[in-house]
Write a structure and sequence with these properties.
This protein has 15 helices and four strands. The protein has 372 residues and is mainly alpha-helical. It folds into two domains: 243 residues, no CATH class; 97 residues, abc type-2 transporter like fold (3-Layer(aba) Sandwich). A four-stranded mixed beta sheet has the order 2-1-3-4, sandwiched between helices. Helix 4 links the parallel strand 1 and strand 2. The protein is elongated. The two termini are 29 Å apart. The model has no long low-confidence stretch (mean pLDDT 85). Keywords: Cell membrane, Membrane, Transmembrane, Transmembrane helix, Transport. It is found in: Cell membrane. Its main location: membrane.
């Protein structure tokens, strides 16, 4: 009972310290509101008004029809250019796609001679260029079919019908908004937990704590509880108010189930932040140490690129050492697909195991630091 009172008292002390850190409060508010919206909505990889140029060397009714078929919202109105102008536009980054229609294109088609349309793609914009080229090719083939064989029925014996589950319109912001929120939980949890330790050292208050009748596990538990509670509440607010409310992203699963999994995750990440802070003495040193950890956890979590696209050895490594990988799998299943506890409990169990290991390691390290 005394240990619980000590933990609660120390947790209150940590919360008061966070409340007086105005820079940290502003950072938390920004990261869980404006940053989520900016990254997910403004930084879109969808094909939208893609800059297109057309080199029409045929100047026939059919080439004009193909040019008219390239229209918003997928493509910007195509700009007629010469071959030299189109090449210069692509070098300047002003045209992602360049369609070239050769001379006598319509005449060759009606005469039954083979002919070619050329699409030059600026592949530096990988996602937009790849999808845009596919959409442009499909648009051209549909328009050519309608022009050359009007009213012809499809010769395909089977009709394949697509249904997009969980994201009917393939809106990228639905995915990126939730994933950005997950990334922000990771970033802020590492920074806030580590900062709580560095703050004690830089202000000299760690000596005051050491002369109090408290034990190392009570100090660690209080730091994890305080920083974890702040980040968990901020993430829930962002999910409900910003992602679901302001951005209109539907959340399919249970908010309580997500909160339970996120609570386990923040314990694991907070322990990691404290562990990293135990090897440093200033915020500058801690920042240099935590940045590569954040980059690896986020880029290799499966939230930005599919986990299945990584080498097998890297998948196994990340599943073994990083709770972020399991948190992304858990969050996607609950928030996107509406999965229940029966489907996500293995990921929650793995995160709990990682949290237990992390807490054990940071306790051992913390005792060593305090003894020194």
């Amino acid at each position: 009972m005394r240990s619980l009172r000590n933990i609660l008292w120390l947790t209150g002390k940590e919360l008061r310290a966070i409340r007086t850190d105005r820079v940290m409060l502003v950072l938390i508010a920004y990261v869980f509101t404006l940053a989520v919206w900016l990254v997910s909505d403004a930084a879109s990889t969808e094909v939208d008004h893609l800059a297109t140029a057309i080199v029409d060397e045929d100047r026939s009714p059919l080439s004009a029809r193909l040019s008219d078929a390239i229209r918003p919202p997928l493509f910007a109105a195509p700009v007629p250019m010469t071959a030299g102008q189109a090449a210069a536009a692509q070098r300047a980054g002003e045209a992602i796609l360049v369609l070239t229609i050769p001379p006598d294109f319509e005449r060759d088609l009606h005469a039954g001679r083979a002919t070619t349309l050329q699409i030059l793609v600026d592949a530096t914009a990988v996602a937009q260029a790849g999808n845009g080229a596919s959409f442009l090719r499909q648009t051209l083939l549909q328009e050519l079919s309608a022009a050359l064989t009007p009213g012809a029925a499809s010769a395909d014996p089977v009709t394949v019908v697509f249904r997009n589950a969980f994201n009917p319109n393939l809106t990228s912001s639905w995915f990126s908004a939730v994933m950005q929120l997950m990334n922000n939980v990771t970033i802020l949890m590492l920074i806030l937990s580590g900062a709580s330790m560095i703050r004690e050292r830089e202000h000299g208050t760690i000596e005051h704590v050491l002369v109090m009748p408290v034990r190392p596990h009570e100090i660690v538990a209080a730091k994890i509880l305080a920083s974890g509670a702040v980040i968990l509440l901020a993430s829930l607010f962002s999910l409900v108010v910003v992602v679901e409310g302001a951005m209109g992203v539907p959340v399919a699963g249970s908010l309580w189930l997500y909160a339970g999994g996120a609570a386990i995750y923040v314990v694991a990440v907070a322990s990691l932040g404290l562990l990293l802070a135990s090897f440093t003495r200033t915020m500058g040193q801690f920042g240099l140490l935590v940045i590569p950890v954040i980059v690896l956890m986020i880029l290799l979590s499966g939230g930005m690129t599919p986990l299945e696209s990584m080498p097998d050895w890297l998948q196994g490594t990340m599943r073994t050492i990083s709770p972020a990988t399991h948190f992304v799998i858990f969050a996607q299943a609950v928030l996107y697909r509406g999965a229940g506890l029966s489907l996500v409990w293995p990921e929650m169990a793995v995160m709990a195991g990682m949290a237990a290991v992390a807490v054990t390691i940071v306790l051992a390290r913390f005792r060593k630091v305090l003894a020194g």
